[in-house]
Amino acid sequence: MNLRSQWSALVLFLLLVTSCSAAAEADGLRMRALPVLAGAHNDTSTPFNLVSMPALIKHRYDGRGLRIGGVLAQELTHTTHHVTYRSGTLRIGGALTVPTRPGRYPLVVLAHGFTDATSYRSGATMARERAYLTRRGYVVLQPDYRNHGDSDRDREGFVARPLGYPEDVVNAVVAVRRARLPFVDSRRVGLFGRSMGGGVALAAAAARPGLVDAVVLYSPVSSWAPDTFRRWVVGSGELETRVVEAYGRPHQRPRFWRNASVRSYGHRVDVPVQIHHGTADRVCPARWSRRTARSLRAAGQRVALHEYTGEGHAFDRSWGRLMRRSADFLDARV
Questions:
Q1: How far from chain centre, in Å, is Cα 2?
Q2: Residue 106: helix, strand or coil by DSSP?
Q3: Mean pLDDT (whole number) for 108-123
Q4: Which fold has domain 3-333?
Q5: Nearest-CA neighbor of 265 among 303, 304, 224?
Q6: Which of 60, 91, 94, 311 has its CB surrounded by the most CB atoms within 10 Å?
Q7: Considering only CA atoms, which of 96, 48, 104, 97 is closest in space to residue 77?
Q8: pTM of the predicted structure, to 2 decimals
Q9: In 3D, which of 16, 80, 43, 65 has the Cα closest to residue 239?
């Protein structure tokens, strides 16, 4: 059976399996109301996401059990399916966007930014980025992360060495490779992280050198954990109390906060990094990306920083230019 026939058979199989349940599953995903978690390491009401880089580096990743479920969206050029996979003890949901035309495509794992966890639904965020990358010839997997959508819940309380969302992103790559999907060339993988997801993507790359071929960061959070503490924790009331009681303030426990900062591990990011940031970003200031780029260069890494004059966090005017640069960058390296 040739590749086109294999692809057609796979598509027919997926349609037969999901046609009866897709609408019901999608309705269930839309209607399910999930609680906001209030852990000191990961409060889903803010973009603050604290991880331990030493723990991420030492962790044994076991992504597995990838399952393709109902259709979330059907377009002329691509189809988006709801998927699940295992990340440690947790079941993680996500959205897998696949080109309609037959072929075997490289993979981009997309780390989404902060969104209200009480209303988050698989496939509802970053749809335009997934569509663009799919049209450029990629299969795109967007993990929901733990505590989002229909994914399992992490512990809410104190976690001494939190792994957080980067564990789910690394395990997404591992799970796709183990699944041996006929339409994915899983030897070729890029990471694309936006805002909070930019920090997640960079931490995943530092945790596992060699995991991917290139990293794109789009309006990313700071690579220095004390910056995110000052931005989203200080003055927050209850969250600040929980974080300080569990981990102390950066000036009180400087070693802990250095170890929570991917900037301290830039020497482990062994692939090219491209960063995009607007100079008028009021959510994540552009100086954060300048410092990240400088630290990566100082560690001997390859990094390109593109700044967009007057552009804000969401990239309303320059989004097309950002995506063209991103796709060109991935095409040359993935």
A1: 34
A2: strand
A3: 93
A4: Rossmann fold (3.40.50)
A5: 224
A6: 94
A7: 97
A8: 0.90
A9: 43
